[in-house]
Design goal:
This protein has no helices and nine strands. The protein is an all-beta fold.
Length: 109
């Protein structure tokens, strides 16, 4: 994995447990999710229907796309059945001193 950035994108209090927020980092749409107190990051565009994942429904660690109901595990990016045929790219996200940092996966599309 090629890391292409490491920048602060939010304050910790901006994403509550069970919540999600979308960001644009270096022209790329990224979703940050807080599940059971831990942060996870994926691309924010559904691989099937090109909808924003943060417009969808987060239940536990599963995000459902608002367009066609495709579901993904936000901890791994794994698509969970039809109509999904391609997983979401995941990114490294870190939290320290009240700041959330993202390290983009430069190898992902």
């Amino acid at each position: 994995m090629t890391e292409i950035t490491n920048e602060v994108i939010a304050r910790s209090e901006e994403i509550e447990d069970g919540g999600m927020e979308g960001f644009t980092v270096q022209g790329r749409r990224i979703a940050i999710y807080r599940v059971d107190g831990r942060l996870h990051a994926t691309d924010n565009i559904c691989t099937h229907g090109h909808a924003l994942m943060t417009d969808g429904y987060l239940e536990g660690q599963i995000i459902e796309c608002p367009l066609h109901g495709g579901r993904f595990d936000v901890t791994t990016g794994k698509g969970l059945g039809a109509p999904i045929t391609c997983d979401l790219a995941c990114h490294k996200v870190e939290e320290a001193d009240g700041e959330i940092r993202i390290i983009l996966n430069g190898d992902a599309a």
